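Session log. Operator J.P. requested a structure for one protein chain; no other inputs attached. Running the standard single-chain path with token output.
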Amino acid sequence: MVIENPTSVLVQKKSLNPLEAPMTVPKVLVIDDEPALQKAMQKILKIENYDIAFANNGLEGLAYLENEMPDLIFLDLRMPGLDGFGFLEKIHITPYDPYHVVVITGHGDDKEVLRSYELGVNFFLRKPLSLVEVRCLAKRCLEMKANERELQEHRNSLEKLVAARTLALINQVRFQQNLIDSIPVPVYFKDNTLHYLGCNKAFEKSLGCAREDIIGKTEHEIMAADNARFHHQQDLELLKTGETISYEVSSSYPDGKEHDLLVFKSLFHGIDGAIGGLIGTNLDITERNQAQFQAELHAAE
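Structure written below.
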């Protein structure tokens, strides 16, 4: 068909969504003002049962795009009215367009090819046309677009899957954080280089530090030097032997008082079985020790 009396040269691409399923019969738009070429293109492309439309110049091509979205466009560059370059400047080719554009150019005109490349075109036919080449190139372009749509579908599916799993992971991490925050005993965990990975609110309170100031640090950066060295030696022993350890230590809290702590530490492993780091808890036994001391005093009396 030939588009007559186009009323607008503004292109609103009807759909740039690569996920839209292609039409059962691919649509091919031929923009060329030569009746002989139109007839030849009609003959060769009908063999593949394509839905073929014709436009005599760029304006008619733009008018077609306002109502239909082809899967492939053949575009002559030299036409009356709006030529091929004007058409390309209007449509602004992008990789997300549902069609490829094949430019038909004069034999040996490399300047036209260069300018077409600059306007986003990747496929060319030189005159005089080989109808076999037209047919093969049309088939190849349509196959490429179909593959691009399929690849985009896979990408979008993967992105949705990753987004869903990321959200699930975030929710899981939040739940775990809320869980350990509900434990009144200080809890913390370190990686296998002995840098803090996380902790609960009770541990933050015991150090007088916010979680953000603890994660990524070592005990040497957040504790008094003597305590840090002692804990570090215990951690190294745990990494070496792999056996759960417990020990008592005295530590100064932000309230200025010395607290007796019973520390428990054990290793955790990654899904590959390798050591991921350690997890520890600090049980405050100050009151227990004081009560025991008082009991011993009474017994001695």
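Operator note: The longest strand covers residues 258-269.
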